[in-house]
Design goal:
Layout (H helix, E strand, L loop, with lengths): L2 H18 L6 E5 L41 H8 L21 E3 L21 H19 L1 H9 L2 E5 L2 H8 L6 H5 L2 H21 L5 E4 L8 H7 L7 H25 L4 E4 L1 H10 L14 E2 L14 E2 L16 H13 L5 E2 L3 H10 L1
Parallel strand pairs: 1-2, 1-3, 3-4, 4-5
Antiparallel strand pairs: 5-8, 6-7
The structure holds 2-acetamido-2-deoxy-beta-D-glucopyranose (NAG) (2 copies).
Family: Belongs to the 'GDSL' lipolytic enzyme family.
InterPro entries: GDSL, GDSL_Est/Lipase, SGNH_hydro_sf, SGNH_plant_lipase-like
Pfam families: Lipase_GDSL
């Protein structure tokens, strides 16, 4: 046998046994800017976080494309399951053995609907993210064989975060938006949920078997909305109403899917409640404020983007929000703590530590 072929064969066998021993639990991430780890750096879009001070508290202290001062929620989940952070799928360095760690397909600006975030031009819409997931599986198949690749995907942990932009960057983007003329808010929410259901079924068809599905945060209480639409310096009522309608219906839809599938495939993370805890009583969680962004300008530092010219707070750990929309690393850690250990008010039907315990037994 040609020595190169032999070498390739040996490395395929070594990689395959790595998967079989369950040493590596892959992690896949889908969604928007809350979970994008840098895909948009490779795209011609205005939705990007590739300039300082983004990343100021990241291990490298440089911007990476994450919409955070430091780590984002997927990074902290990776840390929790003892894995390297998943790389952006568009990063050309994501090849070979690195593929076995998983991949991050998320793209800032996207939503459940195709017309969400159109102002950002080239972003990876959710159907495209799922197509990339298929392509990823073909690549991994070449690396370790189709059976092992399927096993890797079936045993993986998956995270999907969608929905916020369908309100902020669609329905409420401009007064009299096309969608708000087409649908009342309750009808729009029902439409979003029915479209989201199809996306989750597609993820199941592609092999996802443990999928964390986050809801939206309290959309009206981010510094941007407080600054632009807040009532008496408080949260913006119409976006609060949107989150109040959307999140419980998402949980119901997920419960319905699981009973149809006869398995706890989808896990609903009540991120609205997780964030509301520190938004309503920031001091109890060691924050000085949840109303003012660390990086930004104007009222609440909530107007425009976070750029090198923005106001920047000296201590990010005492702010719940990093920029006008996105939590700080410290706030992200509080969210992941609840994903890991929260009771059924936070995690339905069970939390991540329970999932990890169950899955390690099978
Ligand atoms: C969104 O676009 C994709 C790809 O073009 C298409 O398959 C899908 O049906 C569209 N979704 C909706 C809700 O129109
Ligand atoms: C969540 O996790 C903790 C352990 O970390 C466990 O004690 C608790 O019972 C779990 N809650 C639920 C509802 O699964």
């Amino acid at each position: 046998m040609d020595s190169l072929v032999l070498l390739l064969l040996l490395s395929v066998l070594a990689l395959a046994s790595l998967v079989q021993q369950g040493e590596a639990r892959a992690f896949f991430v889908f969604g928007d800017s809350l979970v994008d780890s840098g895909n948009n750096n490779f795209l011609a879009t205005s939705a990007r976080a590739d300039a300082p001070p983004y990343g100021i508290d990241y291990p490298t202290h440089r911007p990476t494309g994450r919409f955070s001062n430091g780590l984002n929620i997927p990074d902290i989940i990776s840390e929790t399951i003892g894995e390297e952070p998943t790389m952006p799928y568009l990063n050309p360095e994501l090849t070979g053995e690195r593929l076995l760690v998983g991949a991050n397909f998320a793209s800032a600006g996207i939503g459940i609907l195709n017309d969400t975030g159109i102002q950002f031009l080239n972003i990876i819409r959710i159907t495209q993210q799922l197509q990339y997931f298929e392509q990823y599986q073909a690549r991994v198949s070449e690396l370790i064989g189709p059976d092992q690749a399927e096993q890797l995907v079936n045993q993986a942990l998956v995270l999907i975060t969608l929905g916020g932009n369908d309100f902020v960057n669609n329905y409420y983007l401009v007064p009299f938006s096309a969608r708000s003329r087409q649908y009342s808010l309750p009808d729009y929410v029902r439409y979003l949920i029915s479209e989201y259901r199809k996306i989750l079924m597609r993820l199941y068809d592609l092999g996802g078997r443990r999928v964390l599905v986050t809801g939206t945060g309290p959309l009206g209480c981010v510094p941007s909305e407080i600054a632009q639409r807040g009532r008496n310096g408080g949260c913006a009522p119409e976006l609060e109403e949107a989150a109040e309608l959307f999140n419980p219906q998402l949980e119901d839809m997920i419960a319905g899917l699981n009973s149809e599938l006869g398995a706890d495939v989808f896990i609903a993370a009540n991120t609205r409640l997780m964030q509301s805890d520190f938004v309503t009583d920031p001091q109890a969680y060691g924050f000085e404020t949840s109303k003012v962004a660390c990086c930004g300008q104007g009222p609440n530092n909530g107007l425009g983007l976070c750029t090198p010219l923005s106001n920047l707070c000296p201590n990010r750990d005492v702010y719940a929000f990093w920029d006008a929309f996105h939590p700080t690393e410290r706030a992200n850690r509080l969210v992941v703590q609840q994903i890991l250990r929260g009771n059924t008010d936070y995690m339905k039907p069970m939390n991540l530590s329970t999932i990890l315990a169950i899955d390690s037994r099978t």
